[in-house]
Design a protein that fits this description.
By secondary structure, the chain is α/β, with parallel strands linked by helices. 38% of the residues lie in helices and 16% in strands. Helix 24 (945-966) runs antiparallel to helix 33.
């Protein structure tokens, strides 16, 4: 906060002279004690010469009143001290003094810190954190203006160089507009410091009047000391001398003037122990003279000791920091530090050195430029503070007598102030500073809610700030038009202000008459600012409404009864949420002697592999009908249907035990669950259903017949005849305690339809027995190895001794290890073994014979029965059970989709229909919502990405219409800002959490971690208990959770919106948006039709006819009912229609952009289901980027009808058209499609861009058609399709890849983007892109 250089690097300066001065006066001098007592008694302006210790009095005063200031908040009675200075360097200087000599918390503030854009919260933090705030007066004026602090929150107000408090200076505004307006009892103590109470020119008889004026304004008394003798010991008292010169001498001979000065006074500027200061009028002279003197010192022995540098101001114009003769604050400080350290002994400066920069003691001060005021005389002389110092005034021979009289007059004034300013008493007559004051033509207006105050003085800065916040391009002036006319014969002035055409305030406003042009302009600006405040363009803090959040973007309660979700982490972009379990599967555990429902998983087509066994589930709750869905097994694609077999059947206790044991067995051996985080507890499992084998008494599945169709709550349930639980199969499994049993060599028939695994080695795996090779034994050689048989191999490799040498070998093939069967593997062989199971081929014998299945080849292996064990689950059952996790995962996901679909449809019905009848819920809706809930990372057969693309476009379209119609007084920049806030990922994320969406989102594969919990299992309570006991969090999850990015949740919200749009149309989609944010009511929007004043019809029609705008309608294929919309769509912000209140095209451009986005997004979505999301984005980018729309504008000739008054825009359009005209590809006989292609090729070949307004015109015309036709999307769509057909034809054979996408695909490791905002000196922002290899690209 304390740094004033641009790069915020601290300037280290030893402040030697200042430190010595403070050390010297660490014990207060008598005159300082006297003036301190005066300041404690009443408001005081201390008038002391430079170097006499005024700052020390201020420090003592702050410490004396420090019991009144604290870090307590202002709302609870806290007060602050403000130390105001006139220049930026003084902020640093005075804050350093306060930090060194007080224990208070000091804050320092300058404009370079960006304080102009600080909001209320930032200022609250600063005021809470500091007790004394050192700043330029403009900053305090600003925070008083905006109501961030009130005068009664200030205990002490210190003004450095307070003689500047005249006219409209910031000091004067603070006192006149705020301190004077405060009650006497709550005003702060005022303390002013100056070496000259007079600012500007003053005659002797005016002196007392000016002093009284300053006292009246500052509510203080000017005071000096009666200890004049003591004061002289410490004050500057240089020897004053006048040196006369002729202009030619200074111009032609530097050495002669130096000799002339040396001859007139006994000084030497080449002495190493002499520090001299020269002041010049112009910066360039100071710089050149410094260079000339240093050059002379190198050649002239008499000047060999001269070491020179210069100090000039930093300038205030645009780009001033880049002017050679201007200096930054840092450069100024460096030169002065060199002077302080005696690295240089001559400092040449402009009048920037008079005040505001701490200069060391000087032996000689030479004033080249003429002094105009008493203040300048006192400040310049005050720089000669060394013992026996000299103050030399260079006086032109021409008119020297007048100048000497003026200097004598100033010297007398100094004596007068020393004599008359001691112990001044209040005047008998009241001197009313504010009587007949020009700045009180209109009384200040204070906003009650914030105490922000609008005055005539601050109205122009506020108005300029507002105009600067308007949306603009390089062609648009951001200034209002001000016209002042003189009213005779009273000789008064009246100002009228017309705002830029891109401002919602498009009417001209006038202020009251005034005696001067300046005051008339201020009065008119005051009237305009009040109107901007009334229409919502200024906040109640008098801040332009640019970076804002209105109530429309605030989150409202969502009318869907859902849980917000478990936010266990909230700090980062990735949060952890508990996964939802469908309500129908909660507490649905089958119990003994209670009725259960039996459901069967039907495979269609049922591959031969799956026709031997059937499976399903049992649950105590009836499930809703679910759509069928495909799975992709190792043996081919099949469709799964979940059908009801039996209703309300009773499960006997023994059978229930067998069912639970069966679930435990298959989970351990086939599903391979994580036993560290899950435990089997069937009576209290996470999901209550259990898997059961199903049997049909009919000979085949094809002979299954429907027995009965029942209707329960308007839902159809199909019951199948002869289907039941396979109790025999359950009994056969229940006979074994282990999942694997030893192989009985004497009964190898058991190995038919068997799954085996090995008892040795570290490599696991399950294998299906295909053949019992009775012709081979362990004594045979291994295939491909003529030197070792099986006996030798196992002895050498595993130290295993095969006992039975007569046992046959088992020929086996590995079972596919594919667990996720919800995604097809395109381009892969359907039945290739899963490579995830590592097989050490050196451990087994590979048979040369080949086994063929479905035209695919499997290599068979030979195992020794004695060294293997057999699964109690047959291979035929094993293969179908391997599909069960994918089936159940999809079933649970479908039930979740049905659940959230029901809640959304019910909410839509209860809020937007009279009879509360919900919209129909179909299988199509369920699967669409399931797609909307599925993230791409789940690697499913579908994902939300295409839906999200469409939903994003519709959401922006809908919100753009809402904002356009609701906020008629907002300009395009404000509408864009608000649109961005409402549709931002952060906002949509919060809405998604309120809906409870995170629990419904499918973000993982079924085979990833604990994504799916097998039937009968629950999460291990001991893990959570252990974590709580040890106060640590392990990587073992005690709950079913998933980590989701905020953007993923936002994407789901947009995808769900797209589903509602596709299933039920635009009206239902609008209502869904209202459910998300109850403040956005599309049914209650005001009419967007622009009312036309009857008096304006003739001028409008004249413009229409005169500019031949009928031709534009012909090109569009649409005739406007309201021609003012057409005029507005063709009006650039640089143009003003004089007496017609026609806004620029920017609001219509905002609307048209959103409409085009939706139309192109719909076209791309519906055109080809195979288009990937990246393709859709590229298509939209290619068609709607500014260059493409600008080309269409040029081809159709819309630019010919553009109302604009920007020479730069005219030249840029002309340059673009000239490049095209010179192209060899452009011929007069070309069709529209061929012209578009030729124009586009020219852009690439010539490496030029289309002027942005050309693309804006296209968008604004579409927006105008939309409003004029009553917001009929079919009509607008017809216009758009006609206009963009040539562009679409150009991309028919291929969509160009977006440059951003191409870069990301080229550098997948990531790109680094950065930006730097523009400044007042350099308004252009800078953008940088860094590649992974370190290469940097920058543009502005």
């Amino acid at each position: 906060m304390e740094d004033y250089n641009d790069d915020n690097k601290k300037i280290q300066s030893d402040q030697k002279d200042n430190d010595e001065k403070l050390q010297t006066i660490i014990q207060p001098r008598p005159y300082q004690c006297e003036l301190l007592e005066a300041a404690l008694d009443k408001n005081t302006i201390v008038c002391l010469s430079t170097g006499s210790g005024k700052t020390f009095i201020a420090v003592m005063l702050i410490k004396a009143l420090q019991d009144e200031i604290s870090t307590m908040s202002l709302e609870h009675g806290g007060k602050k001290t403000f130390f105001l200075v006139n220049t930026v360097p003084l902020v640093k200087q005075q804050s350093q003094v306060l930090k060194k000599h007080t224990a208070l918390k000091i804050g320092s503030y300058i404009g370079a810190n960006g304080v102009d854009l600080w909001k209320e919260e930032k200022w609250k933090t600063e005021l809470q954190s500091h007790q004394v705030l050192v700043m330029t007066a403009a900053i305090l004026l600003q925070i008083l203006r905006h109501g961030y602090i009130k005068v009664n929150h200030i205990n002490l107000l210190i003004f450095d160089e307070c003689h500047r408090a005249v006219g409209n200076h910031d000091y004067a505004q603070i006192m006149r507009d705020y301190v004077h307006a405060e009650g006497v009892q709550t005003r702060p103590t005022i303390f002013g410091m100056t070496a000259s109470v007079i600012n500007g020119k003053c005659k002797t008889h005016q002196l007392e009047t000016k002093i009284k004026a300053l006292e009246s304004l500052m509510l203080s008394r000017v005071s000096t000391t009666k200890h004049q003798d003591d004061l002289r010991k410490y004050s500057t008292k240089p020897h004053e001398a006048a040196v006369y010169y002729q202009q030619a001498i200074v111009t032609n001979d530097v050495q002669s003037i130096l000799n002339q000065m040396s001859g007139s006074i006994d000084i030497s500027i080449t002495n190493d122990h002499c520090d001299d200061l020269m002041t010049m009028k112009k910066r360039c002279i100071a710089m050149v003279l410094s260079h000339v003197l240093n050059t002379l010192a190198n050649y002239d022995p008499s000047l060999s000791g001269l070491k020179c540098n210069f100090v000039v101001g930093h300038g205030t114009g645009v780009g001033s920091s880049q002017v050679m003769t201007n200096m930054t604050y840092r450069q100024q400080a460096c030169s002065i530090d060199d002077f302080r350290r005696h690295d240089i002994n001559l400092l040449i400066a402009t009048n920037v050195i008079e005040e505001g920069i701490d200069v060391p003691k000087c032996n000689v001060v030479i004033r080249f430029n003429e002094m105009k005021t008493f203040s300048s005389y006192m400040q310049s002389k005050g720089r000669a503070r060394a013992q026996l110092a000299h103050f030399v005034m260079m006086i032109d021979e021409n008119g020297k007598d007048d100048k000497l009289r003026l200097i004598k007059h100033w010297s007398d004034m100094q004596q007068y102030l020393q004599l008359r300013c001691h112990d001044r008493q209040p005047s008998d007559e009241s001197y009313d500073l504010l009587q007949n004051h020009e700045f009180n033509l209109i009384p200040p207006f204070q906003i009650p809610s914030t105490a922000a105050t609008l005055t005539m003085c601050n109205s122009i800065p506020i108005l300029n700030w507002y105009c600067g916040s308007l949306p603009k391009d390089i062609y648009t002036p951001a200034t209002p038009v001000v016209k002042v006319r003189c009213i005779m014969p009273h000789n008064l002035y009246k100002a009228t202000i017309t705002m830029p055409s891109n401002s919602p305030l498009n009417e001209s406003l006038s202020g009251p008459t005034a005696k001067s042009k300046k005051v008339a302009k201020m009065a008119a600006a005051f009237v305009v600012c009040k109107e901007l405040l009334a229409i919502g363009q200024l906040t109640d803090r008098l801040v332009p409404v640019k970076y804002f959040t209105t109530r429309a973007s605030q989150l409202d309660d969502i009318n869907i009864d859902t849980n917000e979700g478990d936010l266990s982490q909230t700090a980062g972009n990735i949060n952890e949420y508990q996964r939802a379990l469908p309500e129908i599967l909660q507490q649905c555990h089958p119990h003994i002697n209670e009725g259960v429902f039996v459901y069967h998983f039907q495979f269609n087509p049922c591959h031969k592999v799956y026709d031997k066994r059937q499976f399903g589930i049992i649950t105590s709750k009836r499930l809703p009908q679910m759509p069928s869905f495909p799975i992709y097994t190792p043996y081919g694609q099949t469709t799964i249907s979940i059908a009801l077999c039996r209703s309300e059947i009773i499960i006997q206790p023994q059978v229930m035990l067998q069912i639970r044991q069966f679930n435990h067995t298959i989970s351990q051996s086939i599903f391979r669950i994580r036993t560290d985080s899950l435990q089997f507890q069937a009576t209290n499992s996470y999901s209550g259903y259990l898997i059961v084998p199903i049997i049909y008494k009919a000979k085949g599945v094809d002979q299954i017949h429907i027995n009965v169709i029942t209707i329960v709550k308007d839902e159809y349930f199909v019951t199948y005849r002869n289907a039941d639980i396979d109790y025999d199969f359950l009994s056969s499994i229940a006979r074994y305690n282990d999942a694997y049993i030893p192989i009985d060599i004497n009964n190898l028939k058991l190995l038919q339809d068997a799954v085996i695994t090995r008892n040795y080695g570290t490599i696991s795996g399950n294998f299906e027995v295909s053949t019992i090779a009775t012709q081979r034994s362990p004594l045979d050689y291994m295939i491909g190895d003529d030197r070792r048989n099986f006996m030798t191999y196992y002895k050498e490799k595993y130290n295993l001794q095969i006992k039975n040498t007569n046992q046959p070998l088992l020929r086996v093939k590995p079972l596919p290890n594919k667990h996720d069967m919800l995604q097809s593997h395109k381009g892969q062989k359907l039945s290739s073994p899963n490579s995830q199971v590592s097989t050490d081929m050196s451990n087994i014998s590979v048979v040369k014979t080949e086994y063929h299945h479905r035209n695919q080849k499997y290599d068979e292996m030979e195992f020794i029965p004695e060294l293997c064990k057999m699964s109690i689950i047959p291979a035929s059952a094993w293969k179908i059970l391997a599909c069960i996790p994918s089936i159940l995962w999809r079933m649970e996901s479908i039930l979740l989709a049905q659940e959230i679909a029901g809640k959304i449809l019910t909410a839509l019905a209860s809020n937007f229909t009279t009879n509360n009848t919900p919209l129909p819920q179909s299988h199509s809706l369920t699967m669409s919502i399931l797609q909307a809930l599925t993230l791409a990372r789940a690697q499913d057969e579908f994902s939300l990405e295409r839906l999200e693309f469409l939903g994003d476009s519709f959401l922006k379209h809908a919100i753009a219409i809402y904002l356009f119609r609701s906020y008629t007084n907002y300009h395009e920049g404000q509408l864009t800002t608000l649109l961005s806030q409402i549709v931002s990922n952060d906002n949509l994320y919060r809405l998604g959490v309120k809906m409870g969406l995170p629990g419904y989102i499918i973000g993982n594969k079924v085979d990833k971690g604990d994504a799916w919990v097998p039937p009968g299992y629950c999460f291990n309570d001991s893990i959570e208990q252990l974590q709580m006991k040890l106060h640590v969090i392990t990587n073992l999850s005690a709950k079913p959770v998933q980590k989701l990015r905020k953007k993923s949740i936002a994407d789901v919200v947009e995808a769900l919106l797209a589903v509602i749009l596709l299933q039920f149309g635009e009206n239902s989609a609008y209502r869904f948006i209202t459910l998300l944010n109850a403040q956005i009511q599309f049914d209650k929007l005001p009419n967007s039709v622009v009312a036309v004043d009857q008096a304006a019809l003739n001028p409008i029609n004249m413009l229409y006819e005169g500019y031949k705008l009928k031709e534009v309608e012909t090109i569009l294929g649409y005739q406007f009912n309201n021609r003012i919309l057409l005029l507005s769509a063709l009006t650039h912000a640089s143009y003003n229609h004089r007496r017609l209140a026609i806004q620029s095209y920017q609001r219509l451009e905002f609307l048209g952009d959103a409409i085009l986005q939706l139309i192109i997004a719909r076209d791309g979505y519906n055109a080809n289901a195979d288009y990937k999301p990246a393709d859709l984005h590229d298509l939209k980018e290619a068609l709607l980027k500014n260059d493409s729309l600008g080309v269409m504008t040029a081809v159709y000739g819309f630019h010919k009808y553009l109302f604009q008054r920007s020479p730069t825009l005219f030249n840029d359009i002309n340059q673009f058209l000239n490049v095209v005209d010179k192209s060899e590809n452009l011929r007069p006989d070309l069709s529209i499609e061929e012209k578009v292609l030729a124009y586009s090729k020219c852009l690439v070949d010539a490496k030029i861009t289309v002027p942005k307004p050309l693309g804006d015109i296209f968008e604004s015309l579409i927006g105008a058609v939309f409003v004029d036709c009553g917001e009929s999307m079919p009509i607008v769509n017809e216009v758009v399709q006609k206009l963009l057909q040539p562009q679409k034809a150009m991309y028919a054979n291929g969509i160009p890849i977006s440059p951003i996408r191409a870069l990301h695909e080229m550098f997948p490791s990531g790109l680094t983007y950065s930006s730097k905002e523009g400044t007042k000196d350099n308004p252009f922002s800078e953008f940088s892109l860094k590649l992974p290899n370190g290469r940097l690209f920058t543009t502005t």
